């Protein structure tokens, strides 16, 4: 069964550094998402992306965050200048339509030192 | 802002029991509701999606119901098995918004 893949599985970065999290959504999906889950807390929506542009973003998704779909297969989340509070599990998800389930990757654990 | 609550936070049952997990949401103007399973250190596995016009969805031993007017959904698991042990998450998508609000989850332990 097709799946969403995320790399790396674990990323350790110094505070203030830039980090790029990568995702390969399911190939025929058109809607792409990033979520994060801080340890012990709820899964939080960050951003949704459709037709090569952001369709929704949360208040968490400020100017230090950006997303890109550089080619037909990858979907990336960039954090420009990381902070300690960015430490979390970041999940990528994709969906074929808004009426179909979202499928999640296994996540990237981001640790900011 | 939509708030999603799941009760109970944790549940431990003996194998073979039927059980119900609850999800409530504050704004009934939803587009759809999705139930997920999360295993430790893993991503979320989609279990069932109910659109706002539907009352329930079934997949194998799982049945999810939706009462939009009262802001409630339940996930019924029949004949529970140890392999069902995981955290179950409920998420709602507001009408006209392309995003999900998640509950905190119910951590289920099915004892052999």
Q: Can you describe this structure in just a few lines?
A:
The complex is a heterodimer of chains A (113) and B (112). Chain A has 113 residues and is mainly β.
Q: What is the 3D shape of chain B?
A: globular
User: What is the CA–CA distance across the termini of chain B?
Assistant: 41 Å
| String of helices and strands of chain B | EEEEEEEEEEE
Binned, the helix content of chain B reads under 10%
The most extensive interface, with participating residues per chain, is:
A-B, 27 and 23 residues
Which properties best describe this structure?
heterodimer, A: 113 residues, 4-stranded antiparallel β-sheet, 11 strands, globular, B: 112 residues, mainly beta, 6-stranded mixed β-sheet
How would you characterize the overall build of this protein?
The complex is a heterodimer of chains A (113) and B (112). Helices cover 0% and strands 50% of the residues of chain A. By secondary structure, chain A is mostly beta strands. In chain A, the strands form two sheets. In chain A, strands 2, 4, 5, 6, 9, 10 and 11 form a seven-stranded mixed beta sheet that branches. Chain A has a four-stranded antiparallel beta sheet with strand order 1-3-8-7, with no helix packed on it. In chain A, strand 5 (43-50) and strand 6 form a beta hairpin. The mean pLDDT of chain A is 94. Chain B has 112 residues and is mainly beta. In chain B, the strands form two sheets. In chain B, strands 2, 4, 5, 9, 10 and 11 form a six-stranded mixed beta sheet that branches. Chain B has a five-stranded antiparallel beta sheet with strand order 1-3-8-7-6, with no helix packed on it. The A-B interface holds A 4, 6, 31, 33, 35, 41-45, 48, 50, 55-56, 58, 91, 93, 98-107 and B 31-32, 34, 36, 42-46, 49, 51, 89, 91, 93, 97-105.
């Amino acid at each position: 069964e097709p799946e969403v893949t995320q790399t790396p599985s674990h990323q350790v970065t110094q505070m203030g550094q830039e980090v790029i999290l990568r995702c390969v959504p399911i190939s025929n999906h058109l809607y792409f998402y990033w979520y994060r889950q801080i340890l012990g807390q709820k899964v939080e929506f960050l951003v949704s992306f459709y037709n090569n542009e952001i369709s929704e973003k949360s208040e968490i998704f400020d100017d230090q965050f950006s997303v890109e779909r550089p080619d037909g297969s990858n979907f990336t989340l960039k954090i420009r200048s990381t902070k300690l509070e960015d430490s979390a599990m970041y999940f990528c998800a994709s969906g074929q339509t808004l009426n179909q389930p979202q499928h999640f990757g296994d996540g990237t654990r981001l640790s900011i030192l | 802002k939509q708030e999603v609550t799941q009760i109970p936070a944790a549940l431990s049952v003996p194998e073979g029991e039927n059980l119900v997990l609850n999800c409530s949401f504050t704004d009934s103007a939803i587009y759809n509701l999705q139930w997920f399973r999360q295993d430790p250190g893993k991503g979320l596995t989609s279990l069932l999606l109910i659109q706002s016009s539907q009352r329930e969805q079934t997949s194998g031993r799982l049945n999810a119901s939706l009462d939009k007017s009262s802001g409630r959904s339940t996930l019924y698991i029949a004949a529970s098995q140890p392999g069902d042990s995981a955290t179950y998450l409920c998420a709602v998508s507001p009408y006209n918004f392309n995003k999900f609000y998640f509950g905190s989850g119910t951590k289920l332990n099915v004892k052999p």
